[in-house]
Each structure stands twice: as structure tokens, then as C-alpha cells.
Amino acid sequence: MPDPATLQIPAAGTYQLDPETSSIGFATRHMFGLGAVTGTFRVTSGEITIADPVTSSSASAVIDAASFRTGNDARDKDVKSANFLHAGEHPQITFTSTDVARDDDRWLVRGQITVRGTSAPAELDITEVRTDESGFFVKATTRIDRYAHGLLKKKGLAARYLDLTISAHATRR
């Protein structure tokens, strides 16, 4: 459960995600669950609207599918290929919120993630929000089921789930 001091509600308004200071890290498994794999995606754009009440807020983001990086060139090439992300034909992964809710001490942002043209629900657990002079920093986590997006190849070699950590800085528009 997040420390309430790390969840500062930003002022109402529209904010742009800064691609230079925003990223998505992920962790998963490979080789029948025996090996850990970590990596990153690059956020290319996004917008967060803080509303009053906060539960009427919204968020969207665009991720560069070709920015998938694990530090293993052969793996990265395979994941970006038609076997998985098919980044040449589907260059963007998108998130669009549908709901913002408070669950006890947790804030959740529910929405749809679209990968390779297939949308599936996602629930972001907001773990940190800190305001600054230009806007705010937000950190969230979620688990993505690649099968829900039709990414079914190499089931034994690549895990079904990816645990994502989103770190983003949003500046006032």
C-alpha cells in the first residue's frame, strides 16, 4: 500500500507526458519460467487530465513498439518481429483510460491497452504521485497478459505475463 505522503493530487488541468523523462520498465520470464527478463519501452506521447472530482480524470499514452529493449539483440529483434509485436505494421502500443477509482488507500486507473491492433483491459495501480513546479511525476504498476492481445507464439519460451512499471513526468499544458 502506498504511503499517502507519496500520493499528492495535482492541480486540475491538462498535462502532457514528457517523453524524455517518461519510460516503461518491464519484467517477465523466459525458458519455461526459469530465466528473468527485464527491459524497457519508450513513451512517445501522452496526456493526463486531472479533473474535479479526481475520479473524473483521464489518461492516454502512446508507446513506441520498436523501442522494446532487453539488452539481448536477438531477443529484441524476435519480439519486435511478426512473432510478437509486429512493430513494422503496428508501431504504436496505446493506453486509454476508462475509469479512475479509489480503493481504500489505493488509486486505480482502469483502461484499455491496444497491442498489435487488439485491445484488452488493464488496471494501473498508482504507487506514487509527486507534484513539482512544472507538473507532476507519477509511478504506476500493472500486469499485462500477452495472450489477451493475441500474442500466442512461443508459449514455452516466453512468459504469458509482463509486469510493467510506468514512470512518467507530466507538465502542464
Write the layout of secondary structure elements.
Elements: E1 13-17, E2 23-30, E3 35-50, E4 58-69, H1 73-80, E5 92-103, E6 106-115, E7 118-132, E8 135-145, E9 161-172
Antiparallel strand pairs: 1-3, 1-9, 2-3, 2-9, 3-4, 4-5, 5-6, 6-7, 7-8, 8-9
Describe the protein.
- This protein has one helix at residues 73-80; strands spanning 13-17, 23-30, 35-50, 58-69, 92-103, 106-115, 118-132, 135-145, 161-172.
- By secondary structure, the protein is mostly beta strands.
- It has one domain (4-172): Lipocalin (Beta Barrel).
- The two termini are 31 Å apart.
Helicity, as a percent range: under 10%
Span of the ends, CA to CA: 31 Å
Report the mean per-residue pLDDT as an integer: 92
Q: Identify low-pLDDT runs.
A: none
Query: Which second-level CATH architecture applies?
Result: Beta Barrel
CATH class category label: Mainly Beta
Order of helices and strands: EEEEHEEEEE
Largest sheet: 9 strands, antiparallel
CATH fold-level topology:
Lipocalin
Number of domains: 1
User: Structural class, from secondary structure content?
Assistant: mainly beta
Q: How large is the count of helical segments?
A: 1
CATH homology group:
Lipid/polyisoprenoid-binding, YceI-like
Radius of gyration in whole Å, from Cα?
16 Å
Percent of sequence in beta strands: over 45%
Shape: elongated
